[in-house]
């Protein structure tokens, strides 16, 4: 069967061009399932693993739906962590860059005053963690009267981290006439209840089975090495892999300091 392209879904030329620059040439399985439903403004429950391309699955329709002239947020994305909020902010801004779409990220342990200032300016889409989003709503610094779509991403993680009560409180602030999309790697009863209570009766469920096409592109390997050769092997690995970014885990603070000093001496920090 012929592979689908993003043009198949009637996506605007500006977004197609941005996707091509990001090297998104054809949709992933989850995008093939979700895009036509999301573009029709359906309520959707998606059970899919992290790394399957779900950010673009909801990011593309959000960018399509944005009215640039409207200054107030038109979509709200709730996520469990700061890191995911920043990742989604960057990806959606890249997808919508030719439409000049502005995405604002709000999360805890960051300046509330700075976020308040950003939210006063044009913000088409807001992505944030439940605690900080709810704080902005209570303070009146986040306007949601123009929100037409809410996305709950990694809903099971928000449940495990104790955010579900905050998520429900946030939803109560939102317009009743809206699209709701829920993405979750698993579907525990509390997440299913959330979907049943806050989504339309004609909601559509999409469950992506694990396959080589939709599994995260994560590979694990290990090397047995003696203590005295660890630093040399680390340098070799970093030289060969040449990663744009890397996280090195150590078992004590002293070892972290030693590795940090070693890499700095080698000019890698």
Description of the molecule:
The structure is a single chain. With 269 residues, the chain is α/β, with parallel strands linked by helices. The protein folds into two domains: 6-207, P-loop containing nucleotide triphosphate hydrolases (Rossmann fold, 3-Layer(aba) Sandwich); 227-265, no CATH class. Helices cover 43% and strands 11% of the residues. It is built from eleven helices and seven strands. The protein has helices spanning 13-21, 29-39, 54-65, 82-95, 112-120, 130-139, 155-160, 164-173, 189-198, 230-241, 253-265; strands spanning 44-47, 75-78, 103-106, 125-128, 149-152, 179-184, 204-207. It has a seven-stranded parallel beta sheet with strand order 3-4-2-5-6-1-7, with helices on both faces. Helix 3 (54-65) packs across helix 4 and helix 6 (130-139) runs parallel beside helix 8 (164-173). The longest helix is centred in the N-terminal third of the chain and has 14 residues, at 82-95. The chain is globular and about 65 Å long. The mean pLDDT is 92.
Mean residue pLDDT? 92
Number of strands: 7
Q: Let me know the CATH homologous superfamily of the largest domain.
A: P-loop containing nucleotide triphosphate hydrolases
Give the strand line-up of the largest sheet. 3-4-2-5-6-1-7
- The secondary-structure class comes to alpha/beta
CATH topology of the largest domain: Rossmann fold
State the shape: globular
Fraction in helix:
40-55%
Please report the number of helical segments.
Answer: 11
